[in-house]
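Q: How would the C-alpha cells look for this protein?
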Amino acid sequence: MSIKKSVRLVDETIKLCHELTSQGDTNWSGAINTMAQHYKVFVDECLPSLTANEKKFIYYVYTDYIPQPNLEMEFYQQDWHVNECWLYDKQASDLLGTNEQAIEFVKRVRAWSKPEKLAVIYMARVYWGKLDKRK
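A: Here is the predicted structure in C-alpha cell form.
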C-alpha cells in the first residue's frame, strides 16, 4: 500500500535524501522510504534488553508523551522521567520489583547510549500509538 502526501522537509532531511539517491534527480519518495526502513532496523537493533515488566514501566514513563523539539534535551530528560516515575508512581514502580532492583534499573537507564535511548522512546511511541488507534 502506498499513499501520496505533501510534506515539508528540513535542510538535514533534504541533504540526506540527496545522499540516499544513487544518481540523477533526487528520488524523494524512495529516499524517505529508505530512511524509514533504516530507522526501523536501527531501533530494533539498538533496543536494550528489557524484561516484560521493565517495558511496562517504560510505557508508564511515556504516558501522554510529548516529544521534545531538541533531541539532546530528550535524551537528558529520559533519566529524570524514569527516576520520577519510579519515585512517585507506586503502580509503575512495583513493576521493577524490590527497591534494589529498581535502583539497578535506573542505573542501567542512565548508562544507555543515545541510540538505546532513542530505541526505547520509539518502543513507547509505537505502544501508545497502537492504543490510540484502537479508540
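The chain has seven helices and no strands.

The radius of gyration is 18 Å.

Upvote if useful.
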